[in-house]
Design brief:
single chain; mainly alpha
Length: 127
């Protein structure tokens, strides 16, 4: 009987040890909580996005303006070249006809510049 009691106590100890070894659990959460953002942080992010879009738009507009200015400059160079050719031609024609160049440039005024302004502003009335 003593041996039966000994065997029962060994089995009980063995069961207690095996149960206690299995009682430790490792839990790994798979739920993520988004970071808390303040209203100021959201406003700053929105402002940064708006400024980035504005800078991109400005860059594209400046590129377009640069292309247009280069086209206009090419046209002006062409007009200048043609005017130089015409000026040379006219100088040769005038020389062949014996026409003298004026010593002083002639200043012409427009008719609207000669006439004084007839109407007065209502607040400028003297009184």
């Amino acid at each position: 009987m003593l041996s039966a009691a000994f065997v029962c106590s060994v089995i009980t100890v063995w069961l207690c040890i095996s149960i206690r070894g299995e009682s430790s659990y490792e839990i790994q959460p798979r739920i993520t909580v988004p970071a808390y953002r303040t209203d100021a942080a959201r406003a700053i992010d929105a402002y940064e996005r708006v400024m980035e879009r504005f800078m991109n738009l400005t860059g594209r507009n400046l590129t377009d303006i640069d292309k247009e200015v280069k086209g206009i400059a090419g046209t002006l160079h062409s007009v200048d070249r043609k005017l130089a050719e015409l000026s040379g031609r006219m100088a040769r024609i005038e020389k062949a006809l014996g026409i003298e160049q004026p010593k002083k440039p002639v200043k012409k005024t427009l008719k609207t510049e000669k006439q004084p302004h007839a109407t007065k502003h209502p607040l400028q009335s003297g009184g």
